[in-house]
Amino acid sequence: MDVPPVSDNPLMDELGLTLPEPIEICDVTLRDGEQSPGVVFSREEKLEIAHLLDELGVDIIEAGFPVVSRDERECVRAVARAGLDARVCCIARAVLGDVDAAVECDVDMVSVFVATSDLHLEYKYKKSLNEVVRCAIDAAQHAKDHGLVVRFAAEDATRTPIPRLLSVFREAQAAGVDYVSIADTVGILNPFTTQHLVRTLREQLSIPLCLHCHDDLGLATANTLVGAACGVRQLHATVNGIGERAGNTPLEELLLGLRLHFGVDRYDLSVLTRLSKLVERCSGMAVAKNKAVVGENAFAHESGIHVAAIINHPRTYEVFDPSVVGASRRLVIGKHTGKRALAHITRQMGYELSDECLCMVLGRIKQCTELKRGITWDTLQRFIEESMREIENRSGK
């Protein structure tokens, strides 16, 4: 794959950053992604998405929330029994019945979650911290007794005082859970606070950390990458960044960031465009044209200066080759198209146009685009034919 090495990024090369922990990716599309308003995945859709995530090579697939409904339980069980290489996870409240539902689904891992911030304790639970943590520890131990890998997740961890969060995580660690998870439930983290929080927890705990970021402030990818750089083991993401409110860390952005900045190359990134389109279709949530990595315009070029450089060497205006993520480059005809770019495009269409004809076609293109009309290939072909006829008529042939 034509992915630039780390040396293509001189600033990262100068810093010499490496990941202190071997990371693993937990994709939460089928659970948190489905919490997007109006999104419901059928059993068949969950299986199709899970198989493609497995082809990509994600380490863990969070398949759902079994206690929600009988249908949800069947969906989670179907994914768990699909013969995937990835471990299958589900979530559970700090309730023994939720854990029993997870056990019935044959999952490998369960994430027992409990909120730890003052806001949630007072307005959601109306209980003390000790009460809710005790319930969560009991649920976690119940899951361990049934042979499950257990992730202990602190909901709204990033609005919880660090000494309190440390105390809760130490209790979970002593209870024998396998991971503790920082949930940035309302997306309040920034890269600086992420660094401080993760480093503080990592210094005080011996248990692997997980990081689950929401994108309310548009910082989820940056925060997750910083978390990885500071020692988070398990990174959470969703395809296309779907999820409740503003969504989650986009999987495609996270994987490209890990590859380009830290050299993590064990995931098959060529699956990403197919996966993005599948989730877009199943969720009904359109991907923005300018979305990083998988958007329609991610590898589209119109500016004459840019296209001219791209023709000489694609990397002048592309940080990685589109084939890396299973996409293709697109040269767009529009107001900013230059003569050289047009000559290249028309040559690909089978025309060898004179300078006079190219200028005439460009004039028609600019006039059309200034009226905010799109230029399709059929329109371009019509402009070429009209310009050629006009030149021919002028010459009297």
UniProtKB/TrEMBL annotation:
Coiled coil: none annotated. Keywords: Transferase. The keyword Hydrolase does not apply. This is Probable 2-isopropylmalate synthase. Belongs to the alpha-IPM synthase/homocitrate synthase family. It comes from the Archaea. The keyword Transferase applies. It comes from Methermicoccus shengliensis. Residues 23-273 form the Pyruvate carboxyltransferase domain. It holds the Pfam family HMGL-like. InterPro entries: AIPM/Hcit_synth_CS, Aldolase_TIM, LeuA/HCS_post-cat, PYR_CT. It catalyses: acetyl-CoA + 2-oxoglutarate + H2O = (2R)-homocitrate + CoA + H(+). The gene is aksA. GO terms for molecular function: homocitrate synthase activity. One of its GO terms (biological process) is carboxylic acid metabolic process.
